[in-house]
Amino acid sequence: MGENHFSTWPVALYGMVSFMAGLAYYFLARSLVTIHGKDSILGIAIGKDWKGKISLVIYAAGIGLSFINSWLGVTMYVLVAAMWFIPDKRIEDKL
């Protein structure tokens, strides 16, 4: 993105790659809960995974906003990164 001076398409494509990575994480978490069961330690720790779902919504919004103003898209991606920077202690607390 930096070499292209944060133009629209590189920012939108970065959002798509990030969205797909978030979607893969969501499917992985759901698969692990399915394998181990909802009542397992992992199933209880992951719970409804609001952080993962909200990340997908913010990434999708960032992709759309990048066509309006590329800096709005970048802001949304930074918001998701900041949200995940805060440690998620759900699994640690259960183990």
Description of the molecule:
This protein has helices spanning 8-36, 41-46, 50-66, 70-85, 90-94. With 95 residues, it is mainly alpha-helical. The chain has one domain. Helix 1 (8-36) packs antiparallel against helix 3, helix 1 packs parallel to helix 4 and helix 3 (50-66) runs antiparallel to helix 4. 20% of the residues are buried. The model has no long low-confidence stretch (mean pLDDT 90).
**Unreliable spans:** none
Total of DSSP H or I helical runs spanning 4+ residues:
5
Number of beta-strand segments: 0
Strand content: under 5%
- Integer tally of domains: 1
What is the radius of gyration? Answer: 16 Å
Order of helices and strands: HHHHH
Helix coverage percent: over 70%
Helix vs. strand class:
mainly alpha
What distance lies between the first and last C-alpha atoms, to the nearest angstrom?
A: 40 Å
Specify the biggest β-sheet.
none
Sum up the structure in keywords.
single chain, 95 residues, mainly alpha, 5 helices
Protein topology:
Blueprint: H1 8-36, H2 41-46, H3 50-66, H4 70-85, H5 90-94
Helix pairs in contact: 1-3, 1-4, 3-4
Task: Give a quick precis of the structure.
It contains five helices and no strands. With 95 residues, the chain is an all-alpha fold. The protein starts with 7 loop residues before the first helix and ends with a helix.
